[in-house]
């Protein structure tokens, strides 16, 4: 009995219970949704726009300008960075990169670290890094020995 119902539909004949007379419409393609982009990112994508690079002097001037505005207390960080023409992220990156140089300038009289030579002289750079590493290990060892002696005195082990 099951063969009787299937045979006419397979042969292409229309029967009462089959949908051979109805034709299905083709499926629609799904619309692709692009993620929303902030308005500030749009100009950077234009073909003619280039990324702005600031010199060290310009960075220092803009950081000083922002710090003065913040010290006055009249503006927020976002407003100060916007008026200086940079983003908040750039401000934090510049500030982070500037701070080690200020600390080194404050020390001043201490032994200056040897600058690594760039430009392909890897062996000389490696030697300098090893010398710096040995110096730092020596300083750490001295500090730990002094701390150990002090703890032994406090505990009365000597």
Automatic annotation (TrEMBL):
Q: Which InterPro entries match?
A: Transposase_8
**Compositional bias ranges of the Low complexity kind:** 7-21, 33-47
The GO molecular function terms of this record are: DNA binding; transposase activity
One BP term from GO: DNA transposition
Q: Where is this region: Disordered?
A: 1-61, 97-117
Which superkingdom does the taxonomy of this entry point to? Bacteria
Residue ranges with Basic and acidic residues bias: 97-113
User: What is the official name of this protein in its record?
Assistant: Transposase
Q: Name its species.
A: Aminobacter carboxidus
